What does this fold into?
Amino acid sequence: MSAIEHIPPALRARLPELDGLDENSEPRATCENCVMVARPPQRDPGSPWAFFDDLRCCTHHPALPNYLLGRALARQPAAGLIRRRMDDRQGVSAWGIRPQQPPLSPAALEHRFGRDPALICPFWVGGQLACGIWYDRTASCRTWFCRHEEGHHGAQRWWRMGDVLSALEVRLGAYFVRIGDAPADDAPIADLLAWYAWCAQRAARFDESDAAAIELAGLERVRGDLVRLRTPAERALPERLVPAVSGMQIEGESVRLAGYSSYDAALVPRATLAFLALLDGVRPWREALAQSDPAVDEDVVRALFRIGALEAADDSGAGGSVAG
It folds into this structure.
């Protein structure tokens, strides 16, 4: 499903840099058979390397604007889940439904995301895709992937797209509050449900005059990033590489190495560590590879380069590091 279909076409037309970006699939992120779940499933709340099977990446409460809530109310099981969430009025308003709690710090999120039941999405239903509002989910869910075919470059593309789409969702929800007969935030639930349904109907009639009323100021830098990130990532391996490992975990005769993200880590032969120690930014990596264990081959080098655990040596010839 398109990552941008939930934004009215008339508004998408004002942001041509979004065209075609969501056509890039992420085959490494298999939601129907989650690659982040340990096999066999484990319950280690301190590990950043795997998710719990009954949580996965759904340890996140999306901020749902009114018009998406109205769309979702026309479907099951979404309608029942939304009504149940509204039993707790915290975060419920004419704009939509926001999380009850403030966002976690990056450090806390690193250890709890995918592993803390207290963070489970209120719209979780379990099963293959697990999402009770799948067709009407927000950009935060549509553009999040655990692994990326183009590594950090591909991740940045999705992150910036998510930034733009999330900003549009916020502004669309506020626009409908401004032009409609919005109930008070503490109005009866029935009134809010009827309001959300009206917003969905109004979004279906959203035209060019509506789009012109949506303020796009403040999005210039992110939109510029999207133009830059349309160019595919460089696939050719530089002659000289240095380690840029952000984390590692020994697993028998293998080692799991992370670069830009612990979610998109590579499981490689343990002998790879000796190969990395030879990369000083001066010696070509092929020369270092020829001196290494045969289990470490070019596929290993490419895998580490994709995830950013190896990067091009800078002009100074300084080597990188292997962080523990």
Residues 9-229 form one domain. The longest helix spans residues 151-179.
